[in-house]
């Protein structure tokens, strides 16, 4: 029952690359109101507003906005939304893995790469075992009931 959340930071960057420089600030400000809305309904209203406003000039942007995975984070309690609308936590770890594997240059076989990756996963899990990310401690019971 995993729910997919499209990274709002990446969507914002994609939108910025699909519009004229003269419209970039305005359209990105409009999109910022989507992921800063206080409710899913308000966010949907902002998306509809953006679609109406920009559909003639930027149909490719409208296509991005129609992705339902943009608003998945609104299915969760407000205290963790800011954390989960972006994939920064995952990207940081992936970047670190990439850096470590490049440093190793070459693994003799697939099994050695797999052992190395598993050890990195274990180290990461140990590092964050006792840490609770901002907002998650308060809603632990709520998340338990959701899953």
Automatic annotation (TrEMBL):
Q: Which InterPro entries match?
A: Transposase_mutator
Source superkingdom: Bacteria
Any one Gene Ontology BP term: DNA transposition
Name this protein carries in UniProt: Mutator family transposase
Question: One Pfam family name from the record?
Answer: Transposase_mut
Any idea what job this protein has? Required for the transposition of the insertion element.
Q: Which UniProt keywords apply?
A: DNA recombination, DNA-binding, Transposable element, Transposition
State the family it belongs to. Answer: Belongs to the transposase mutator family.
Molecular functions (GO terms): DNA binding; transposase activity
Coiled-coil annotated spans: none
